[in-house]
Design goal:
This protein has about 170 residues and is mainly alpha-helical. It has helices at about 1-5, 10-30, 35-50, 60-80, 100-115, 120-130, 135-140, 145-165, 170. Helix 7 (about 135-140) crosses helix 8. The longest helix is centred in the N-terminal third of the chain and has 23 residues, at about 10-30.
Length: about 170
């Protein structure tokens, strides 16, 4: 971390590679779209690189970078709401593996349900169930009390279960 902060490009690249997958997962679940998540991730990585010299270490690097990813994802959602949405592409049906199709269907159902949650519930559930942050870390990322985090996660999960037709096991699927 110190080497990356001091300008060592190899250390910076290693740090970004280490966290890129989890940051993309946050962006993907927040935006519900691979393309929008890629845009949010790019904005996140740029903001991390630019902000790293000012990173004070009061929180972990992961917590700090998750906060940046959440903000970039929310920015991307706001930008998306201002542009027309393309027609949703339908699959060509070429995949014949029933298990793979079920997994894809579940992922699409979860993504669709997550998109229907308010951002405050969506981000809390994503940080807990996708990033596996504890309540204190989520409270730090969101700058809210831990009790608010618990409430948002509980309400978000309950809404997801309702949206998924009572399939509670699908709520914690990655």
């Amino acid at each position: 971390m110190a080497q990356a902060r001091s300008g060592d490009t190899q250390a910076l690249e290693a740090l970004l590679r280490l966290h890129q997958g989890r940051l993309f997962a946050v962006c993907r679940r927040m935006t519900g779209s691979d393309a929008d998540a890629a845009d949010a991730l790019q904005d996140t990585l740029i903001a991390v690189v630019r902000g790293l010299p000012r990173f004070d270490g009061r929180s972990s690097f992961a917590t700090w970078s998750y906060r940046i990813a959440v903000n970039a994802s929310l920015d991307e959602l706001r930008a998306r709401s201002r542009r027309p949405e393309p027609d949703e592409a339908a699959g060509d049906g070429s995949c014949t593996a029933a298990d793979a199709m079920d997994g894809v269907a579940d992922r699409l159902d979860i993504d669709s349900a997550l998109r229907q949650l308010t951002p405050e519930f969506r981000v809390a559930v994503v940080l807990r169930d996708v990033c596996e942050l504890d309540y204190a870390e989520i409270a730090e990322v969101l700058a809210v009390p831990p009790g608010t985090v618990r409430s948002r996660i509980a309400r978000g999960r309950a809404a997801l279960v309702a949206l998924l037709g009572g399939r509670a096991e699908a709520v914690t699927a990655p």
